[in-house]
Amino acid sequence: MDRARQMSEERIFPLLVRFSFPAVAGMLVQALYNVVDRIYIGRGVGSVGIAATTVSMPMMIIGFGFALMIGIGGGAQVSIRLGEKRTDKAEQVLGNALGMLLIASVGMTGLGLAFLTSCLKLFGATETILPYARDYMGIIVAGWIFQTVGFGLNNFIRAEGNLKTAMGTMLIGSVANMILDPVFIFVLGWGMKGAATATVISQSLSALWVLHYYLGGSSLLKIRSRCLRFQRAVVLRILAIGGPPFLMHMSECLMVALVNAQLRIHGADLGISMFGVIISLMTMIFMFVMGVSQGAQPIIGYNYGALRYDRVKRTVGLAVAIVTVVVSVAFVVIMLLPATLVRMFSRDDLALIELGGRALPIFFCLLPLTGFQMIVSNFFQAVGKPKQAMFLVLSRTVLLQVPGILLLPRFFGLDGVWLTTPVSIMGSSLLTAVVMYVTLKHMKTPKESGSESSSEAEPAWPQGSKHTNPGFQS
What we know:
The chain has 474 residues and is an all-alpha fold. Helix content is 80%, strand content 0%. The chain is built from 17 helices and no strands. α8 runs antiparallel to α9 (191-215) and α15 (370-382) runs antiparallel to α16 (386-412). The radius of gyration is 22 Å and the shape is globular.
């Protein structure tokens, strides 16, 4: 069965499983190496090393956010163009995206190195933590181009439907990092610099793998010199579709900075270290959800471009069901074994273990709702509806998380810092459900609306609404 028939005719569940498995495997391995990275740092450097990675997190989120914005924004367009059988337009998107990734990485590296110390202080580094964070983040920033190009272009490999190669990108970097970390941290004794060096080398291997795929002749889409010339409409569309995930990461950057600021007041260095442990566990869970979300993205995008809205709805529903079940299992483990999970990072720091026994159950108490929210946000990105996705992202941060982190610690102290996340999850999940219900209610195939069913037919929309194929405008 060729790719077009697969996307438009195969049963959704096996199709989603096949598309999601490589993405989930790659994402989980990548998340695992982030967790292992902190475990090695915690045992080789101490809790201050974990704290150093925590205050470095906002800068890392910024770098990752640019790659995600261009990768998701371009990948969603490629899926839709392939669904419309317009390969030339898909290659134009790929070429423009590559140019944007290179420019973004060079610009970020220059600014990051110039303002490294100021940024780390702004993001919560104390005098104790700052030297460790500077050793770590200086090397990470210098190698940003590898992360940006490797992760950004990997979204296009996945959009083509070549899931094994996309999974290989994640596996190569993750396995290399897990091998190099103990060598550089323990054998060579490089500490924080060793952890950062292992990360950059691993990211460079992933970037080389991706470039070999596109330059070695095995890719569906080709990087053509004429497509590297920027086209205003293509660039703006990439930024529009990729804007919501970018803003999501920028809002995460803001939240980490605000949390670190509150932790300096209510939890000191130990509280910041605890937040680093929480981020590691949260990354494992979110990477799984992101893997399913990325597996669903080409299915949603292709069938949306082909006007098969019934298949779009079934894909979203199945993706939500899968991630909710798995995340609920993780929730049970965290609730039952919080102190055990903290001991993985630091066996001898009794104060950190005791704090984790209280902090983790509070922070993760509404964890099962997060999968639904992330899948729905990806749906809006995949069908080219950036305004809805952006609204959901910003409403969670601006309306809920920021006020929460500023107000709750005043009343509940350190517990108030951990309470901010479940409060924001509850409010944003309710809002997401309303927006999704209204959107799906108005999505009808030509057959459902009583029109002739054909690949050229126009979809039915509420009277007075405006749309343009392939993406309807809000």
